[in-house]
Structure formats: C-alpha cells, structure tokens
Specification:
about 230 residues, mainly alpha, Transferase(Phosphotransferase), domain 1, two-stranded antiparallel sheet, 6 strands, transferase, kinase, kinase activity
Amino acid sequence: MHSLFGHLKKCGFDSAPRSAGYDENFERVTFIEGECGDLDSVQMRLDTVLTSAARLLRIYHDCSASFQGSAEGAWQLKPKPPFEVICHGDFAPYNVVMRDGKAIGIIDFAAAHPGPRLWDIAYAVYRWAPLSRHIAVESIVTIKEQINRARDFLDAYGLPADERAALPDLVIERLKGLVAFMEAEAARGSEKYRKDIEEGHHRLFREDIGYIRVHRDQIAAGLMAG
C-alpha cells in the first residue's frame, strides 16, 4: 500500500494513513485519531456519519482514479475490470474513523484492489444501510429503513439515479465472491479464514444474499426514488 498512500498524499487526500516504513514483513502506518465502531454504536448510526462517510468515499475514489500502479499488482482481492478506481474493498463503519459526528478517516486498506466505482459502492451500501438481517440493529431493521439509508448514502456520494438499478445484483455478486474467497483461503490453510468459516460467517453472507434477492426489486426502485 506504500505507493497508494504516497499517491493519496500527493493528491492532498489527508483522510488515509501515511506510510511509516516497514517492520519485518509489515508496513507501518500513521494513526488517525478518532473513533471506530460498527452500527451497534449509536454514534456510527448518525445521519451525519452516514452522509459524510459517503462523501469521503467519493473523494477517495476521485483521488485514486489517477493512481498509476499496476492492476496486476500484489492485491489481496482479485482486480475487477474496468479499472476505474482503487476500491477500498471493505468500506464499512468499522474501517471509518469518526470525530465530532462526522467521518474523517479511512483505515485498513488490506482489501484494496483496482475495480469500478460501483463495485466498491455496492459493498459500502451493503454495510452502511445495512442490506442485511444479521447486521441490522435498532432503528434500521426494516427493509424500508435500510433502503432510505442506502439512498441517503448514494445521494451524498453523488451517484446518478440511472446507475443505481444495478446495485442489488452487484451486492449479491460481491458477497458471492467474498464467500468464495473465504472458503479458498481457509482451504489453503489461513487460520483467520478457517476460524471465520468455523464461526459461520460464510453462512451469514449467504443468508444476506437471499435477503437481498427477496427484496431486489424494492431495493432497486427505492434507490432510484427521489
């Protein structure tokens, strides 16, 4: 990530860590002061956090679009054409730093990879809405509430309405790919992903795939509504 962080710095994007050298096999990065969490935190569910996170993702995408690194580099996740931006890959509440009710930083770029904007937006919407039964929490448990949050996220990002209909199918594709990746890594001997499989994380993603399929048309229509 050293070259990507350097590029973001040159672009004036100060909401990502800076490279601080290497320690054995790991790259050290600077610390972004603030709070992280998931949607079980009342603070992370604030509308101001939701919309500022979407705007932050848009700025990051715009900066990363001019990154000249190889699309076939050492990315953890497989690059997905067309290569429009460097997808963060896991733009979820737990990877966004919040301060004073606003998203001010992005952390953990381990899943970053080249891909189209919508690919990254789809997973972000899945996590922030959330389009899920098992990660839904108080005040955002119904599909209507989740669609409203998803639409607010897309509005703040600035995604045109005519590009939104594809998002439910992209979320499904992204989750299928995530499950396949987890299972493949576990089979290769990864302790982290073996534990995830044992704990049933892949089954939860499959349940969410079913949930999104059931509500697919409602989600697509809701995202495009004014």
